[in-house]
Amino acid sequence: MKKITLLLVLSLVLSSSFSYSQSRKKRKQEEEAAKALALKNAEAAKKKDQKIKDYNQVITKEAKTDDGLFKTHQIADKHYFEIPDSLLGKEMLLVSRIAKLPANLGGGYVNAGSEANEQLITWERFQDKILIKVKSYAAVANDSLPIHLSVKANNYEPTLFAFDIAAFTKDSSAVVIDVTKFYGSDVKAISGLSSQMRETYKVKNLDDSRSFITSVKSFPMNIEVVQDFTYNASKPSTMEDTETISLQMNQSMILLPKVPMKPRLFDERVGWFTTSQYDYSSDALKSDKKTYIRKWRLEPKDVEAYNRGELVEPIKPIVYYLDPATPEKLRKYIKAGVEEWQKPFEAAGFKNAIVCKYPPTKEEDPDFSPEDIRYSVIRYVASTTRNAVGPSVSDPRTGEIIESDIIWYHNHLRSYRNRYMLETSAANPKARTLATSDEDMGAMMQMVIAHEVGHALGFPHNMGASYAYDVESLRNPAFTKQFGLAATLMDYTRFNYVAQPGDGDVQFIRQMGPYDFYATNWGYRYLPQFKNPESEVPTLNQWIVEKADNPIYRFGNQGSFFDPRSQTEDIGNDAIKASNYALKNLKIVAGNLPAWTSTMTNDYEDLKELYSELLGCWSRYIGHVATTIGGVYEDYKKPNQQGDVYTVVPKAKQEAALQWMLNNAFNTPTWLVNTTALENTEYTGYTERFRALQARYLNKILSFETLGRLSSGTTLSDANYKPLTFLSQLRKGIWSETSQGKNVSIYRRNLQRAYIERMEYLLTGKLTDSRSDEYYLTSQSDVPAMVRGELKQLLLQLKVAKNGAVNLETKYHYEDCISRIDTILNPKK
């Protein structure tokens, strides 16, 4: 027993000794590993210290600092942002606009002030880098729901740019990054050159030696960066020998509101600019598309008084400032144009909701800057561009408009002076001069500014508003003075071209209309009793239903290219009647144009310009009638409203429109051939100008889209206008000389050849238009068969007519047409 005990004790001692030895060895290994790790960390820290420097090593005494949303620093040609930790993760808008551009960039459809891109971003820290992450509210879900994880996973936010952290502030509350490369290189997401432009102009690369960051300014709510960029391009839009495109970009970084505005859901029956998102929180078996209107945040100072129906001032009114560069004599008209909207806002319960202020002096507001997001400005641009625009910046989360700069280009008033003469002078003696009075020009400018402010308030064009008024009422002084030329200022109804000589003191210049009051109340009425957008919908719907049967309150989408009631530049509810009045007036103007221009100035420049624009007026009047052919009425409705959304234009109206076109557009308008104007402004090309105008509208009515809608209409009712009937009537009208034994004038010969070429296109071509709802397989439609049949009929007519042709030009023309048609019907293999 003692031996056993001794052996056991010895075993324990040896075991303990072995364990101690192993433990000591393990500790030694751990100590060595710890030393190695410490050394590695020290080396990493040393490298890190070399990469992330002390604040004073980066932001030196030479730095020019601007304090605002971020502190910005410039040291020589380097630019730095100092981003507070409190702003990391905060949502901001990055808005890229073209500030200056070469002529004809984008085919003339891009102007200074045009927005190139708008992105929702956040600044995020990842290890030793700061990232710009591009976010989207296109897909959302309540973050308390499981599907929120899927939305995030399937909509991963791209990284626009990554910056190394250059330094930390001394109190470690902010990071410093070098933004020179981001703003100084060709980052396509903020470039003014689209992919299409780069391809069109054969853009090779950004030339670093000719590209600069012009300025960086920081304001309390935004940072503005101006870039001067020059690209090497083989085919620039202008000055091709330079192989250069230079443009100036303005990059705005704007902090979004901390507390989002309660949004208002969009209803297509009232016109608004919008922002949309897909909400996956819905209980429905699909994502719920939510579209919000874009509007300013207006909340009454006294809610109780507001609810009692009293007019109440908003907590924060909409304020526009005039650009200091605005000419003195125009300031009162611009101010009045902005404040035209005070009355519609009163319909929504707000007093002084929108005001315009003259530019403050340095003493009044030393911090005033048009680039500061806190100030919305009417910018006056010294440019030959004839335009005005009303862009705005809005919160993509809610549609809240944050800021807006209206841009007025100096030469825009010249367009209005010309149109004023051409469209009203037959009945308006005050317009028969190039020296239009300041009072009349001011009234025009006031309404243009008001129109652009309307866009900046959230209103798109309502092209259906002009149809609300009977054509004859536009000749009535009392009616036009009270109701204007259209039910809204947001239609393109610039002037009253219907009023006839002797009608009296009618309104010739557009003005605010009843729809403007209605739409402003619908969108801006403060509804605090509803806690979310969905609960507002029944009330908003009721307001629409109450007005639904009155055409004054109808919204006509500018995109409704097929609805003859929703057209640009037209007035009145009958295109044929309105265009008849318009052409009567235009004949008077055409006959007097030299006397009102070149005779007064002893110069042909204005005559040449105005004669060209007179042809443009004629073209518009023709176009208003042409849209009736193949037309479809579009009336936005909910299922509980009576009537259909889409209704084919009655056959009688379409036939009348075609006959009017044959009489006024395709029979040569010889009164337009003003020999005084042509012989003194053009050395050739008279017939070509008319050929192009006539062919334009021949092609419009002889299009796949028109024939497709005519065919579709016949499937709904046999009483609708049939495409074959239309084609037959058109052929007989265009080729009327073949049955009358008359000579064919040069203008008509050109038109008839254009007809043959268009029919060839319809026989052999295909629809490639981007409007997806108009697509159909043309090769398997009735179009080729109908066109082939019409060409065969025409061939028979021509073979008979050529033998009875009166003069040689007509005979040769018919023989040529026969040959052309034969080649089309029997192409060589």
Give me the number of helical elements. Answer: 25
Give the helix proportion (percent range).
Answer: 40-55%
Q: Summarize the biggest pleated sheet.
A: 12 strands, antiparallel
Quaternary state, please?
single chain
Low-confidence stretches: 1-21
Mean pLDDT: 87
Name the beta content range.
15-25%
The number of E-state strands comes to 24
Alpha-beta classification: alpha+beta
Q: What's the N-to-C terminus distance?
A: 121 Å
- Rg over CA atoms, rounded to whole Å, is 35 Å
The global form is globular
Summarize the structure.
With 829 residues, this protein is α+β, with helices and mostly antiparallel strands.
Question: Would you write up a description of this structure?
Answer:
By secondary structure, the protein is of the alpha+beta class. Among the domains are: 2-51; 56-256, no CATH class; 615-648 and 662-829, no CATH class. The chain is 40% helix and 17% strand. It has 25 helices and 24 strands. Strands 1, 2, 3, 4, 5, 6, 8, 9, 10, 11, 12 and 13 form a twelve-stranded antiparallel beta sheet that branches. Strands 17-16-18-22-19 form a five-stranded mixed beta sheet. Helix 9 (412-424) packs across helix 16. The longest helix has 50 residues, at 2-51. The radius of gyration is 35 Å and the shape is globular. It starts with a helix and ends with a helix.
